[in-house]
Specification:
The protein is of the alpha/beta class. The chain is built from 10 helices and 4 strands. The protein is globular.
Length: 277
């Protein structure tokens, strides 16, 4: 295949793909304060991993979704803050379009911690309306659940640099940076509140200092940048292997068959009811 990125294909190529398969991976990102890294860092990481996953399971990738709920980083004037509700509505319409196009297996992924606030409602409401299970795959959750990762802050830095390299944008990463990683953050005193629900879902807040969110190591030379990129690509490959996307999309297909039977036996569930009205 010439490219996995749907917008770079011509229409005939997409239609040819859909004659044989029906998988689309949708990386959802942000444009936000990210230390000395570019503002689209978490979008780039999501897109790079989406590409790697797509190569494993013969999927296409729908990129260019960088403007969603950022959260606490709204203190940075480079951060584009979109409401959770607006993001849910937009992604829901996008999912409906993809379903009409023929993508019955849709996998939404994000490296952004609070992305679940936007994506989980889409997944649940879509099932109730259309009777088609779509998936949200939380990359940070997968990373922390993977045995043997033992991630450090430096690993997150290298993953970011590696992702830019995978997408052919390594030179977008600045060579020098004045930021130092500092702990605790300005909001750590409220850890009792933040620990009462899954990440960023307990109480709304903004960071008090710009250094609170993923500050950046010094990258003094192009050689050091390439070294970080190599390390990051290795971690990304390990993560992709851990996810086992081939099994994930096969299970998603089997889940649809299972749910079809459920809807037939229980015609009052929302999806069945909506279809039969």
């Amino acid at each position: 295949m010439r490219t996995r990125f749907l917008p770079k294909l011509i229409n005939d190529e997409v239609e040819h793909y859909l004659e044989n398969n029906d998988i689309i991976i949708v990386p959802v990102g942000t444009t936000e304060l990210h230390g000395g890294f570019p503002l689209d860092s978490e979008t780039v990481v999501s897109e790079a991993i989406a590409l790697k996953l797509a190569e494993k399971c013969d999927a296409l990738v729908l990129p260019n979704l960088p403007y969603f709920y950022a959260g606490a980083t709204a203190t940075g004037r480079g951060t584009t803050q979109v409401s959770v509700r607006a993001g849910i509505d937009y992604l829901f319409e996008l999912a409906e379009s993809l379903l009409r196009q023929g993508f019955r297996r849709q996998v939404y992924i994000s490296f952004h911690g609070p992305a679940h606030i936007t994506l989980s409602p889409v997944v649940r409401d879509f099932m109730d309306k259309h009777g088609v299970p779509i998936l949200y795959l939380d990359l940070t959750m997968q990373m922390f659940s993977a045995k043997g990762f033992g991630l450090t802050v430096d690993d997150f830095h290298s993953i970011t640099v590696g992702a830019y390299d995978i997408l052919g944008r390594l030179e977008d990463v600045p060579l020098t940076c004045e930021y130092e990683h500092t702990r605790p953050s300005s909001v750590s005193r409220f850890s009792v509140l933040s620990g009462l629900a899954y990440e960023s879902g307990a109480a709304g807040y903004y960071f008090g200092e710009k250094s609170d969110h993923m500050s950046t190591p010094g990258i003094e030379t192009a050689e050091r940048r390439s070294e970080l990129a190599k390390q990051g690509c290795e971690v990304i490959d390990r993560l992709v292997d851990h996810i086992d996307i081939v099994k994930v999309v096969e299970d998603l297909k089997m889940l649809k068959t299972f749910e079809d039977d459920v809807m037939e036996r229980y015609p009052w569930v929302p999806a069945a009811f909506n279809k039969n009205r």
